[in-house]
Amino acid sequence: MSALFSLHSSSTLARALRICVPMALLGAAVPPAMADEDIRLGQTILLGVGDHPAIIPMLACRPTKSIMVKAGRELTLERVKVFYGNDRSKTLYFDKVLKEDQESGWQSLGSRLCIKRIEVYGNSEGSRAGVKVYGRK
């Protein structure tokens, strides 16, 4: 009987460990939410020269207070136009040369807007450059 009890209790212990240990590890690895949560709104590709925007469509509107752009390659970032509400828009002017993996810095939208679409204007130094747009809630 004692051998049967030890097998039963060890399998119960093993099952409890399989459940509790990952939960404890996940709880320790997940940072607490901050008031200014940064979210990636989308990414697109800027082509060489031209005044054609690189468009980031949104499946659902994303409430955002500030915008920041990160370059995948060297590029000249002119402006970012965000669309919200009933096709209202706001344009943020950056006019910066960004190196690879460089960030533009945060620009405020003035208030929290529910963004539906983003247009990025600029030129890449090569044939094309990846661009990631981040928002701050």
UniProtKB/TrEMBL annotation:
The lineage of its organism: Bacteria, Pseudomonadati, Pseudomonadota, Gammaproteobacteria, Aeromonadales. Residues 1-35 form the signal peptide. This is DUF2541 family protein. It comes from Aeromonas caviae. InterPro entries: UPF0412_YaaI. Keywords: Signal.
